[in-house]
Structure formats: structure tokens, C-alpha cells
């Protein structure tokens, strides 16, 4: 079966339901351009043609390594959709510095384009809400990037509804995506209204850490173990479907119609996990897992 694509928000941009994230891919998997080229081609062959990056990932090395792949294989650029993020400028001792000034945003986009050897970014997202964000100044930067053809569409990441509303109020075009953590282990962005806002305004949620950032395989506490017990029960009921596919299918069943990011760079694990996009959990299984994750029976 071919991995399906979804339209992002009210746009013509399509992303695959499973997105390859680069947040930990480069440094955890000890990638070089040769290994990454092999992995990119494998992703494409499995139907994963959307890649999620950020200027800050591995200090820019994630974008640079992908750029080396595109430089040696320019045909691969047209086969994939590129998402990247801006706004985290650097790291001090014990803190990050955010910068969403007009100059910083434009410079970040231009550096990303140069590192990746591409002429446009498909989706450009503010990485985290900036406490010093001037929405008018951000609007000027994004409008210029759009008018110059350097960015096709814009979104945000880790934004609460009121923060997205503020930025949207200054733009003449929609923010089409909000990248947030969402899993059986972390429902914060369901409970704080983000996914409701996504449904209401046709904004596409992009779910990172959909397997709990590794907690599916390395439980941290009794709550995690309780959830794993139910996952394994359901796995048996469904014919020994891998629990990672079930956990991924749980995330993707939300009616906000989002896409899920996976971060591992191991080919066999990636091939195994993709199956979650084809699994339609019953409501009974979905609510059994929800109850197990909450730790108590819901009313």
C-alpha cells in the first residue's frame, strides 16, 4: 500500500502522513552524508517524502548534511517536501536565545536555503513562541520571504491558541500548521485546546514524539508500564501488530487529521513503524488506550 498524503491547512501543500524528523537523526545515528543519502532514498522508497528540519538541529549540521545529499543528487529535491524552522538563535550556558526580529528571520531562511542547496522552503515555521515577538515585524519578514519566492507556506511550532491567534492577526495569508508533541504519553496539546483550534480553523497539526520520545521502549514509571500492558493486550487481539504501529495509529486517529514525525534513523525500525499509518483503530481500542494513559476510568 502507498503511504497517503494530506493537504496541509487551506493550502495546496501536501505532506505524507508519516514525516521523517531530523531533530535527533544526525547526532544520535552518527550520520554522514553517505549514510544520510542511503537513508533518504530508503525513506522515499517507503513513501516518506516529507522531511522536518530546523536551523538549530545539530547547530545547522542537519540542514547541511541534507544539502550535501541534494548537491550530489539534485533529483531527490523534487521528490521531497522540506519543512524547516527558525527562531532559536543560539544556546548559552543554561539557556536558549530566541530571535524573531525581521532581520533574523530573513537571515535564517537564507542560511537554510544555502545549507540545503535549495531555492525555496515548502513550509517555514517559528520553532517556539518568542516572548519578545513583535507580530508586526514577523509579518513583514514572512511577507517578504513569500513575495521573494523563498518560502511557499508558513506555520508555527509549540504554539498555544492565543499565540497563534496573535500572529495570524497580522498576516494576510494563513498559518497552515502547528507542530506539537502528542502521544499516549503526552496529551498536553490536546488538553490545552490546540487540537480543537486546528480542527476549527483547518490548521494541520504535525505531531512530534508520537511514541513518547522513546518511552514506548524505555518506560520511566508505573504509568508507562500500565500503558504498555494495554498496548500489548491490543497487539495480541489484532494479530501481534507491533505496539509502535498501534501507538502511532492512536495518534493519527484524531479528527484534526494530522501527520506524525518519526525521528529514528534505523532503516528496519522505520519500515516497521510506517505500518501505523495504515491501521485504523476501533473506538473501543482507542478509548482503552486513552483510559490506560490517563490512569483512571473516564466519566
H/I helix tally: 12
Category from helices, strands and their pairing: alpha/beta
**Overall mean confidence score, pLDDT:** 95
According to DSSP, the number of beta strands is: 12
Strand-and-helix sequence, N→C? EEEHHEHEEEHEHEHEHHEHHEHH
Kindly report the spatial arrangement of strands forming the biggest sheet: 3-4-5-8-9-10-11-12
N-to-C CA distance: 38 Å
**Helix coverage percent of residues?**
40-55%
| Unreliable stretches covering 5 or more consecutive residues | none
Beta-strand portion reads 15-25%
What is the molecular shape? globular
Please describe the biggest sheet, giving its number of strands, its sense, and whether it closes into a barrel. Answer: 8 strands, parallel, barrel
Radius of gyration: 19 Å
Topology:
Layout: E1 5-7, E2 14-16, E3 18-21, H1 25-28, H2 33-45, E4 50-52, H3 61-72, E5 81-86, E6 88-92, E7 95-98, H4 102-116, E8 121-126, H5 135-147, E9 151-157, H6 161-168, E10 175-181, H7 188-191, H8 194-201, E11 204-208, H9 222-237, H10 243-252, E12 259-262, H11 267-273, H12 283-294
Helix pairs in contact: 2-3, 3-4, 4-5, 9-12
Q: Any overview of this molecule?
A:
41% of the residues lie in helices and 19% in strands. It has 299 residues and is an alpha/beta fold. Helix 2 (33-45) crosses helix 3 (61-72), helix 4 runs parallel beside helix 5 and helix 9 packs antiparallel against helix 12. It is globular and about 55 Å long. The model has no long low-confidence stretch (mean pLDDT 95).
Amino acid at each position: 500500500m502507498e503511504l497517503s498524503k494530506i493537504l496541509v491547512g487551506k493550502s495546496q501543500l501536501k505532506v505524507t502522513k508519516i514525516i521523517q524528523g531530523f531533530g535527533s537523526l544526525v547526532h544520535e545515528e552518527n550520520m554522514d552524508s553517505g549514510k544520510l543519502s542511503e537513508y533518504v532514498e530508503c525513506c522515499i522508497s517507503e513513501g516518506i517524502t516529507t522531511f522536518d528540519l530546523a536551523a538549530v538541529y545539530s547547530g545547522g549540521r542537519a540542514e547541511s548534511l541534507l544539502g550535501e545529499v541534494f548537491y550530489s543528487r539534485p533529483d531527490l529535491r523534487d521528490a521531497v517536501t522540506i519543512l524547516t524552522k527558525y527562531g532559536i538563535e543560539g544556546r548559552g550556558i543554561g539557556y536558549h536565545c530566541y530571535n524573531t526580529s525581521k532581520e533574523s528571520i530573513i537571515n535564517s531562511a537564507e542560511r537554510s536555503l544555502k545549507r540545503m542547496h535549495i531555492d525555496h522552503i515548502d513550509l517555514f515555521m517559528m520553532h517556539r513562541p518568542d516572548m519578545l515577538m513583535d507580530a508586526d515585524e514577523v509579518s513583514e519578514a514572512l511577507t517578504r520571504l513569500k513575495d521573494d519566492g523563498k518560502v511557499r507556506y508558513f506555520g508555527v511550532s509549540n504554539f498555544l491558541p492565543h499565540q497563534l491567534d496573535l500572529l495570524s492577526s497580522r498576516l494576510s495569508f494563513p498559518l497552515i500548521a502547528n507542530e506539537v508533541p502528542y502521544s499516549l504519553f503526552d496529551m498536553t496539546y490536546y488538553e490545552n485546546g490546540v487540537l480543537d483550534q486546528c480542527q476549527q480553523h483547518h490548521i494541520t497539526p504535525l505531531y512530534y514524539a508520537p511514541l513518547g520520545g522513546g518511552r514506548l521502549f524505555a518506560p520511566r514509571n508505573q504509568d508507562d508500564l500500565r500503558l504498555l500492558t494495554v498496548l500489548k493486550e491490543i497487539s495480541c487481539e489484532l494479530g501481534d501488530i507491533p505496539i509502535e504501529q498501534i501507538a502511532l495509529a492512536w495518534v493519527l486517529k484524531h479528527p484534526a487529521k494530522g501527520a506524525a514525525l518519526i525521528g529514528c534513523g534505523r532503516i528496519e525500525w522505520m519500515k516497521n513503524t510506517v505500518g501505523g499509518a495504515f491501521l485504523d483503530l476501533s473506538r473501543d481500542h482507542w478509548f482503552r488506550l486513552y483510559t490506560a494513559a490517563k490512569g483512571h476510568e473516564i466519566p
